[in-house]
Amino acid sequence: MERITIFKNLAASAERGELVFPTSIDAALKIQQAFADPNSHLESVGRLVLTEPLLTARIVAIANSAAYNRSGREITDVKAAINRLGFRTLHALATAVVARQFASLITDADLQAKAQQLWEHTAYVASLARLIAAKVTFLDPETALFAAIVHEVGGFYALAQAQNHPGLFDGEPGLWVEHGERPVGRAVLRRLAVPAAVMDAVEIHWEGYLSLPPVSLGDTLLLANNLAMVESPLNQGALGKDELPASPLIDHVIGDSTLGNLLEASSAEVASLTAALRF
Q1: How far apart are CA 82 and CA 58, in angstroms?
Q2: pLDDT digits over 193-204, tens only?
Q3: Do the beta carbons of residue 220 and residue 137 sit within 8 Å?
């Protein structure tokens, strides 16, 4: 079967709600859904977190990153880390675990390599989006972090499904971008109950129209995506016509400085959070 037909079939199945989420992801989904529920209590959700070792380790690591540890006091227990991060950051991390669980199901070496690069890309984008929201677009940094963590979640789902279709992601990346990325991405984001504002931001990322100066959550996400040191392996060479390379962007004037100067001044914070997100 031709790649384009497989992408269309995968997209059609996703749009019909026929998403295959293996039972190994159930625990991570329950935690993610608990954090998304405004009626959940931190203590009860904390008990759920302890059932997911991957999430537990990342919560402590991120709580100790330069982005969140302003006092310089290292945290060693999960309860203190949860209190430091708060619900919105924890919701983002729980969703990240769902994406990483998809990657863990992949046994094909080439697909594994793509999944690893996709997460490296996601980690960079998340760190940059949080910084850009705080210092450039003046939006909620935790919402920007969440948007960046989920912006490629459809890709992780598709990579897991690609094991049934050898060679699906070989060759021209534009086929996935044109025929699979949006319908599959939308379906997975709906399954994860992603808020409408974040869905809208991811849609702007898919469109690729970056406003300068950046003002919206979508601009924040798209700018971070363009500045990330690692590209997504699913759309390398398939950037939209209005997406700009990083070099002109870093010279763009933001207030009394340039974007490049802001990034340089916060490089340690970005590097620390990016490293903590690698799991």
Answers
A1: 11
A2: 889 999 999 999
A3: yes
User: Which two tokens mark 153?
Assistant: 């979640």
| CA 21 from centre of chain | 18
Low-confidence ranges of the chain (pLDDT < 50): 238-242
pLDDT of residue 247: 63
- CB neighbour burial string for 25-38, b if at least 16 within 10 angstroms, e if fewer: bebbbebbbbbbee
Ordered structural domains, the chain, with CATH? 3-277 (1.10.3210.10)
φ, ψ for residue 235 (rounded to 5)? -140, 25
Residue 145 buriedness (CB in 10 A; 0-12 / 13-18 / 19+): buried
Q: Which of 92, 88, 101 is nearest to 40 (CA)?
A: 88
Tokens of 248: 């002109």
Coil, helix or strand for 258?
strand
Residue 257 belongs to what H/E stretch?
strand 257-258
- Using alpha carbons only, give the angle 254, 259, 262 rounded to the nearest 5 degrees: 100
Q: Residues 5-55: pLDDT tens digits?
A: 888 888 888 888 787 776 667 777 888 888 777 777 777 777 878 877 878
The closest alpha carbon to 216, from 199, 201, 205, 194, belongs to 201
Taken in order 112, 113, 116, 121, is the CA torsion positive or negative? Answer: negative
Contact indicator for 196, 202 with CB cutoff of 8 Å: no
**Residues forming a β-bridge with 257:** 254
